[in-house]
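Thread amino acids onto this structure.
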């Protein structure tokens, strides 16, 4: 059976393989290497390969481990059952964190969620035991925080079925968010294919002080690079400034790098990582890292002359960095907090000054250091008799974090200003927030220390405006109760009528003086042999559905098939495959697919979630219903999208649902990395306009032809004809990033079908 834990023996063997592989790589590529290159190239399936061109070559890699959250984990396990493998080939864990809904407070919410999701949890627990997978039950914490505490180590290459898997980059790992199909293949023993990333270098100088926090680094960077600026790139941090940031502070930065579209983000190994490893009971791993620093730090030449090794270099002076705030509706709508008041006062923005709810914690910002700093701010308010003017909610990232800050008093201090502690789960961050006190259609403001703020993301309401900032800034705003408050300059009035100014939070310990407590009581290790464990899925269930392979491509062109919808502006995976109340159906593809494109904006009408049925002429019909009708009539269909189509979460259902309901291709101005890969894996063609202006040529009643597909080849264009209702046509050339192997997925009907054929 595969060892699940990152034991010293396992990590030592990883370093040994890395060293041997890098030696082979350097024989052919005798040049200094960035840290990202060291980690990726040392995990090559064949280190003797000579084709390692960033942005062009596809790398075949051998990840050290796989992590699954409970939503996509259902699909992964259902698909893994199709491989007919007896056990996983790579250390794998499942984490039950997404399905727990925030209602009242953590204890009661957890109990209710366990009851509601018992069928799913039992399936995941049994499947984990059968296939040699470690199982973290509900209440253990959020996947990324639990991985950081237990499994990540400097130099590791890991993949996870969640876009914020790069959180582990704070501990020097190259951790990449992927779709479920990628995970299944690796679990089955196949190499993982990745487009060789480009390199973005971020040089950090100086040291933070006052109100500035690690969150401000990544929020500032989101504004500088935008939500697509990191696409197909690894963001690598270097410079003396990296040593001034705690391990968990680094994790906050790498976690939110997903909002830039980056493949992942990574920091070099340093003493702060060593300190965190020791505090979390992994001193032996710290010793191993100390002995292998040449593997887990970049070659010095890359730091001395970064412009020669990075495609783009950004320098941030931490000593001059002001607290920043992002939002609403996009993580790259960024400004220094000092400028926010002007935007609030500008009535054309429609911002609501009064803050309804403030939320801190989650996988992004619930570290011991974070909670200590926010407790300092809360204590100052409490000493002047103030409570939080807004509803204040705290989401611990894990049971280990929760139990430790309960022991050391940070939770009690926050409760003194009327905070509510939610379950150790994703909760409001991903839409699992039953928020009944706010009326539908009423604009309102929330402030969070989370990582993503798309419309409808948190509570299913498009009117909710989410502003993202550091947890200490969020708590300060919560106490004031208004978005125009700037704790750096403004005062509050105590219950005695005396004005006072919040002082910057004092420097906080990055790890508890008495180490962490709790956490692993929720963990179930797999048995030595799970072959006799039976997995059953009730055919009448609306929560789980056994999956069957997709049909193989018939080899014919797609001629004059209907346009399903042309989307305008942001079409994130939240728009394509909304979460919230729909999360409960993620294991039942047919049921879940009823929400397909529910949030997508129709470019012709401006409405969300509706389109015209070209067969009936009816308008304003649910997009999923029209897709189903096309499928019932034996017709495939095409969706046309805008820039950075599919940004956001790694949710594979944004590709699975279109595949189920007959999607043949998505044509867009550009794709986000994970979603583009997910489409390929499911046998859907992701095509890009050779000229972005051609997007404007697509009309509502168009029939679309994709021709000469039998000649589909890497680097070649696809001929497309737009057949307009008036009889005219436009002939276009469409680009794609399909490799020869990926074209095999398209022809076979899916990547998993290729695996089936090889068995």
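Threaded sequence (759 positions):
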């Amino acid at each position: 059976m595969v060892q699940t834990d990152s034991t010293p023996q396992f990590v030592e063997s990883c370093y040994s393989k890395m060293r041997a592989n890098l030696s082979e790589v350097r024989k052919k590529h005798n040049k200094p290497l960035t840290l990202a290159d060291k980690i990726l190239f040392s995990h090559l399936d064949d280190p003797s390969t000579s084709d390692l061109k960033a942005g062009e070559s596809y790398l075949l890699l051998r990840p050290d481990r796989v992590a699954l959250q409970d939503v996509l984990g259902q699909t992964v396990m259902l698909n893994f059952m199709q491989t007919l493998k007896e056990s996983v080939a790579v250390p794998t864990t499942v984490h039950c964190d997404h399905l727990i809904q925030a209602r009242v407070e953590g204890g009661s919410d957890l109990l209710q969620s366990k009851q509601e999701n018992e069928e799913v949890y039992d399936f995941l627990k049994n499947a984990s035991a059968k296939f040699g997978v470690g199982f973290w039950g509900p209440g253990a914490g959020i996947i990324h925080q639990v991985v950081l505490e237990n499994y990540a180590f400097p130099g590791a290459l890991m993949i996870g079925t969640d876009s914020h898997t790069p959180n582990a980059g704070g501990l020097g790992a190259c951790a990449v968010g992927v779709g479920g199909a990628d995970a299944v293949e690796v679990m089955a023993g196949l190499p993982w294919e990745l487009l060789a990333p480009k390199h973005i270098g971020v040089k950090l100088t100086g040291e933070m002080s006052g109100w500035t926090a690690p969150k401000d680094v990544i929020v500032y960077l989101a504004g500088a690079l935008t939500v697509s600026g990191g696409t197909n790139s690894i963001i690598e941090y270097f410079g003396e400034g990296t040593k001034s940031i705690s391990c968990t502070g680094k994790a906050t930065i790498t976690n939110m790098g997903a909002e830039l579209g980056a493949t992942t983000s990574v920091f070099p190994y340093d003493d702060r990582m060593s300190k965190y490893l020791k505090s979390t009971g992994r001193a032996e791993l710290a010793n191993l890292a100390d002995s292998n620093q040449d593997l887990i730090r970049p070659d010095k030449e890359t730091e001395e002359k970064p412009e020669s090794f990075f495609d783009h270099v950004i320098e941030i002076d931490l000593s001059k960095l002001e607290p920043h705030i992002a939002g609403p509706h996009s993580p790259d709508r960024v400004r220094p907090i000092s400028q926010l008041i002007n935007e609030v006062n500008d009535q054309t923005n429609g911002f609501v000054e009064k803050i309804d709810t403030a939320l801190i914690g989650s996988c992004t910002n619930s570290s011991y250091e974070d909670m200590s700093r926010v407790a300092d701010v809360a204590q100052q308010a409490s000493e002047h008799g103030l409570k939080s003017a807004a509803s204040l909610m705290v989401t611990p990232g894990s049971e280990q974090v929760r139990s430790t800050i309960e022991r050391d008093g940070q939770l009690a201090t926050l409760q003194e200003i009327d905070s509510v502690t939610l379950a150790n789960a994703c909760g409001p961050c991903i839409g699992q927030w039953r928020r009944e006190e706010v009326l539908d259609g009423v604009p309102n403001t929330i402030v969070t220390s989370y990582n993503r703020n798309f419309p409808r993301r948190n509570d299913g309401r498009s009117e909710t405006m989410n502003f993202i900032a550091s947890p200490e800034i969020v708590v300060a705003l919560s106490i004031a109760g208004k978005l125009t408050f700037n704790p750096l300059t403004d005062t509050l009035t105590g219950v005695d009528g005396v004005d006072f100014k919040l002082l910057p939070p004092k420097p906080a310990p990055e790890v508890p003086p008495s180490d962490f407590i709790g956490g692993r009581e929720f963990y179930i290790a797999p048995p030595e042999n799970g072959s006799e464990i039976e997995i059953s899925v009730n055919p009448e269930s609306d929560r789980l559905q056994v999956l069957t392979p997709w049909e193989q491509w018939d080899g014919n062109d797609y001629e004059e098939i209907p346009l399903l919808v042309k989307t305008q502006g942001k079409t994130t995976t939240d728009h394509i495959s909304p979460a919230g109340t729909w999360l409960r159906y993620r294991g039942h593809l047919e049921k879940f697919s009823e929400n397909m494109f529910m949030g997508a904006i129709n470019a012709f009408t401006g409405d969300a979630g509706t389109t015209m049925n070209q067969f009936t002429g009816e308008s304003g019909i649910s997009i999923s219903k029209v897709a189903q009708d096309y499928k019932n009539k034996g017709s495939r269909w095409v969706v046309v999208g805008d820039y950075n189509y599919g940004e956001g979460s790694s949710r594979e259902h944004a590709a699975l649902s279109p595949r189920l309901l007959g999607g043949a291709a998505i044509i867009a101005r550009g794709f986000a990395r994970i979603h583009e890969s997910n489409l390929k894996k499911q046998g859907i063609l992701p095509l890009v306009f050779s000229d972005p202006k051609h997007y404007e040529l697509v009309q509502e009643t168009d029939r679309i032809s994709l021709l000469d597909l039998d000649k589909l080849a890497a680097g070649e264009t696809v001929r497309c004809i737009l057949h307009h209702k008036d009889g005219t046509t436009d002939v276009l050339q469409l680009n794609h990033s399909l490799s020869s192997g990926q074209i095999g997925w398209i022809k076979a009907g899916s990547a998993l079908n290729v695996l089936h054929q090889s068995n």
